[in-house]
Every structure is written in structure tokens, then in C-alpha cells.
């Protein structure tokens, strides 16, 4: 598979790095020579310095032989033009464009349905708001993903020191939790993703990822000593595009909301466009202002400024002052391993949201959704099993899955099956597969050769 990536920023860089490790043929194009040099020095991919909107540059990048074009620069217009040029040169190439501007929202469906040179429009800011809303609804979760239109939850929670499941072996879980169905698909311990087996024990401090049907989620969270508390009051620090989107969403849910924003002009815009949200002009990282706004009575504080350091410090301050929960926007991937150590647990990232959406569309096989986790060390994929697949019609224990991969769930019609070795996948089943990064290539071969390419 050949993939041309226009844009060598954080999203382009990390997508290229991921795909290069999977031995895909990758070409990265950017007019910023320093950004291109960073890519060339860090990974084994082809690089071209130039504009991805220039047809001759796209020709040099081999667009006619590419299966996919990813336009992920920081400029919406540049991404649109790159897709247009690519469509003229190579109509058969699948084209994905990152579009973030609020002005494009009203035309999102038009782009997807009527503009022929764009196959998929990616708006990571919309996905981040969805992620924040999921984190608010799931108590104690540091990561929440959804499959099967929300019927299946993919949840990450930390195991506290005094949790009742600390020290329990996986094989003993059914006895401990009774009839409730719980499948633990991964444990993150010392920043390493582990796929646990029956004799393995859950340890205090582990970040545990499990699969649950939506109706059983509250009971399973209670087993991890996480109990639901309704969200009634939210404080947003940072009134940019994401802050505005989130406030508008919370208004529709009748949740009391305040926004603190430094820029006076942005405060005016927010006050004009929001109906019930209280808009405050000030610095949300100032302790005096947080105290004045009674941050200790706030259920959730969401820090969404464009400065990671400000977001981190504000979240820590709000938590220290008694806020119930904090959600912190961080885009620098290098910060991810550090945040847990300093007390930041719930993190969202527009760049990681963009990567998740992109992966869904570039994976071979009929992939419905893809979720990357823990610094991109692993992925959860929702795929459709086709009749031609070798995984159909025989027990899972006889399927040659690569080491580091596990079938986490099977969805058949309205039935959700937590699989065992004797479970049999049937045609058109939705299958949720969890895989460590080193196993992704082998999984893709199964999806490409056995499930065919869509």
C-alpha cells in the first residue's frame, strides 16, 4: 500500500511514523523544510519539500500509484485544494482531508456526499467534543471508546490501591463478579501495554482496558470501585472552537456551564452565540478567579486553551481546589507518558482524534472504527467478517491469530457475544479485535487477504 501524506505537522508526522513501522510505502510532502527534515531524520519514508497543492509535486510524490492521499496540513483550504489536485491526477486514489474550521460545519455533509474529490472529511475537534462527553458520562474512566453505535464500550480505568479486584487473577474474575460479563483486553503497567492471560493478576496502579455492553457498564464500573455521579456543573477554561462546541453541546443537555476566556473579542462572540452559558473574561489559570467562581463546587473542569502547559497547570490547580473531575487537552504526544505521574488522568487530544479517524479509513478490510491507545502502542478495531474469511465457520481456538492480538467481542444482529475459544464467527458478524502495534501488520494481512479489501 502506497500512501501520500500532505502535511508534516504532528498528525502527519505520527501517522507517517505509525505506517512506516508497519512497512507501508509512505511519501510525506510539506513546504516547511524543517518539518520535512524532522520526518526524514526520524523514519524510513520518502520526503518531498513542496506544496501538496502543486500538481507537479504530487506527481513527484507518485500520486498516480497511491491508494490513499491524506491531506492533514494546518490549513483547511490547502487540504481541500490538495484533494482536488489529486482527484484530477488520480481519480482512483482515496482522499481524506482534515477540515477543522467552524465555517465548514454547515457544509460537512455536502463535502462528503456531493464533492467528488473528497472521500472523507475529518474534523478532530468534533471528535474531541464527543470524547469529552463520553468521559463525563463514565465515572472514573480515563479512556472511553464506542463500538456498534455505542452499544459496546471500550473503557480504561485505573485500579486503585484498595480496589477489591487488586491482586485477583483473571481466571478468578467470574467467581468474584458473579454473572456479570467482563472481558479485560489489555493492562497498561509501567507504560507498557500487556494482553493478560488467565494466570495474570491485576495489580494496584494498573490501567485496565475492558469491553462492556452499555447496559452492564455501571455494574462493572462498580466492581472497580467507580460509581456514577451526575454531571450538573461544568467549567470550561478556553473559549476557542472546541470550547464553543462543547458549551453548545452541554447547553443542549441542560447542563450548567461557564467558560473562562482571556480574549475579550472571543468572549463577545461566545456571549452572542451561546444561550445559557456564562461567559467570563479572565485567566482561568489564576487561583483567585477559580476561587471566586467556586471551582470546588464544579463537577467537571475542562481545560481547552491552546497551551498545553496552561491546561496541565490549570487542571492540577482546579483539582487541588476541590473540583470533582478534570479533563485536559494535550496535543504533544511527548507529554502523554508524564501526565499520569503528575496527577492528570483524563486527557483528550485533537491530534489523537484525527489519527483514530484516519486509521479507520486506511486499514485494510471492512473496518468500521479504529481506536488507538496509550501513545499508539495498540489499537482496537471493529471489522465486518465476510463469508470468504478463514476466521468464519470454525472455533476461535483454531484461528491462527498473531501473538499480541485478541478477539474482544462478536456482535451478531442485536446479540453481543463475549467470545471463548469455542466461539464461532459467522458471515456479517461485527468483530472487535484488540491488537498490540507489533501485531497490526499480521491482522491487516488477515483483513486484506481473508476479509478482502473494501
Tags for this model:
disordered C terminus, Rossmann fold, 15 helices, alpha/beta, Alpha-Beta Plaits, about 450 residues, 22 strands, about 25% strand, 6-stranded parallel β-sheet
Can you give a write-up of this model?
The chain is an alpha/beta fold and 454 residues long. The chain has 4 domains: 2-122, Rossmann fold (3-Layer(aba) Sandwich), CATH 3.40.50; 129-223, Regulator of K+ conductance, C-terminal domain (Alpha-Beta Plaits), CATH 3.30.70; 233-346, NAD(P)-binding Rossmann-like Domain (Rossmann fold, 3-Layer(aba) Sandwich); 353-450, Alpha-Beta Plaits, CATH 3.30.70.1450. It has helices spanning 10-21, 33-42, 55-60, 76-89, 108-114, 124-137, 173-177, 217-223, 241-252, 264-273, 287-292, 308-320, 336-339, 350-362, 437-450; strands spanning 2-6, 25-30, 46-49, 68-71, 94-98, 120-122, 141-147, 152-158, 183-189, 192-194, 207-213, 233-237, 256-261, 278-281, 300-303, 325-329, 347-348, 367-373, 378-384, 405-412, 415-417, 430-436. It has a 6-stranded parallel beta sheet with strand order 3-2-1-4-5-6, with helices on both faces. A 6-stranded parallel beta sheet has the order 14-13-12-15-16-17, with helices on both faces. The chain has a 5-stranded antiparallel beta sheet with strand order 7-8-11-9-10. The model is unreliable at 449-454 (pLDDT under 50).
Amino acid at each position: 500500500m502506497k500512501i501520500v501524506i500532505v502535511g508534516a505537522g504532528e498528525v502527519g508526522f505520527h501517522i507517517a511514523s505509525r505506517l512506516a513501522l508497519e512497512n507501508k510505502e509512505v511519501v510525506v510532502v510539506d513546504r516547511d523544510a524543517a518539518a520535512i527534515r524532522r520526518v526524514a531524520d526520524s523514519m524510513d519514508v520518502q520526503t518531498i519539500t513542496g506544496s501538496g497543492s502543486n500538481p507537479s509535486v504530487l506527481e513527484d510524490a507518485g500520486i498516480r500509484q497511491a491508494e490513499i492521499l491524506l491531506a492533514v496540513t494546518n490549513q483547511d483550504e490547502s487540504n481541500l485544494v490538495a484533494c482536488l489536485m489529486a482527484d484530477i491526477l488520480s481519480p482512483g486514489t482515496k482522499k481524506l482531508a482534515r477540515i477543522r474550521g467552524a465555517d465548514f460545519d454547515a457544509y460537512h455533509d455536502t463535502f462528503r456526499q456531493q464533492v467528488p474529490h473528497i472521500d472523507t472529511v475529518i474534523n478532530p475537534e468534533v471528535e474531541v467534543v464527543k470524547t469529552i462527553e463520553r468521559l463525563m458520562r463514565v465515572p472514573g474512566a480515563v479512556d472511553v471508546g464506542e463500538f456498534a453505535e455505542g452499544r459496546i464500550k471500550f473503557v480504561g480505568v485505573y485500579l486503585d490501591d484498595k480496589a477489591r479486584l487488586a491482586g485477583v487473577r483473571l481466571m478468578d474474575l467470574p467467581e468474584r463478579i458473579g454473572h456479570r460479563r467482563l472481558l479485560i483486553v489489555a493492562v497498561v503497567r509501567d507504560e507498557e501495554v500487556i494482553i493478560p492471560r488467565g494466570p495474570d493478576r491485576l495489580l494496584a496502579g494498573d490501567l485496565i482496558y475492558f469491553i462492556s455492553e452499555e447496559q452492564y457498564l455501571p455494574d462493572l464500573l462498580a466492581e472497580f470501585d467507580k460509581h456514577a455521579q451526575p454531571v450538573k456543573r461544568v467549567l470550561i477554561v478556553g473559549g476557542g472552537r472546541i470550547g464553543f462546541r462543547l458549551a453548545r453541546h452541554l447547553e443542549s443537555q441542560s447542563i450548567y456551564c461557564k467558560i473562562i476566556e482571556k480574549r475579550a473579542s472571543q468572549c463577545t462572540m461566545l456571549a452572542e452565540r451561546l444561550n445559557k452559558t456564562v461567559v467570563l473574561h479572565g485567566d482561568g489559570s489564576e487561583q483567585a478567579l477559580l476561587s471566586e467562581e467556586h471551582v470546588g463546587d464544579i463537577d467537571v473542569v475542562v481545560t481547552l486553551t491552546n497551551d498545553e502547559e496552561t491546561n496541565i497547570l490549570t487542571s492540577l490547580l482546579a483539582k487541588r481546589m476541590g473540583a470533582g473531575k478534570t479533563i485536559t487537552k494535550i496535543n504533544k504526544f511527548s507529554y502523554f507518558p508524564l501526565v499520569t505521574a503528575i496527577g492528570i488522568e483524563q486527557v483528550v487530544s485533537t491530534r489523537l482524534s484525527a489519527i483514530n479517524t484516519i486509521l479507520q479509513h486506511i486499514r485494510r478490510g471492512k473496518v468500521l472504527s479504529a481506536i488507538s491507545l496509550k501513545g499508539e502502542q495498540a489499537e482496537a478495531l471493529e471489522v465486518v467478517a465476510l463469508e470468504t474469511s478463514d476466521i468464519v465457520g470454525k472455533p476461535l481456538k483454531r484461528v491462527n491469530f498473531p501473538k499480541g492480538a485478541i478477539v474482544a467481542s462478536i456482535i451478531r444482529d442485536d446479540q453481543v457475544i463475549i467470545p471463548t475459544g469455542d466461539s464461532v464467527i459467522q458471515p456479517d458478524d461485527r468483530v472487535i479485535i484488540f491488537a498490540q502495534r507489533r501485531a497490526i501488520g499480521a491482522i491487516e494481512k488477515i483483513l486484506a487477504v481473508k476479509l478482502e479489501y473494501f
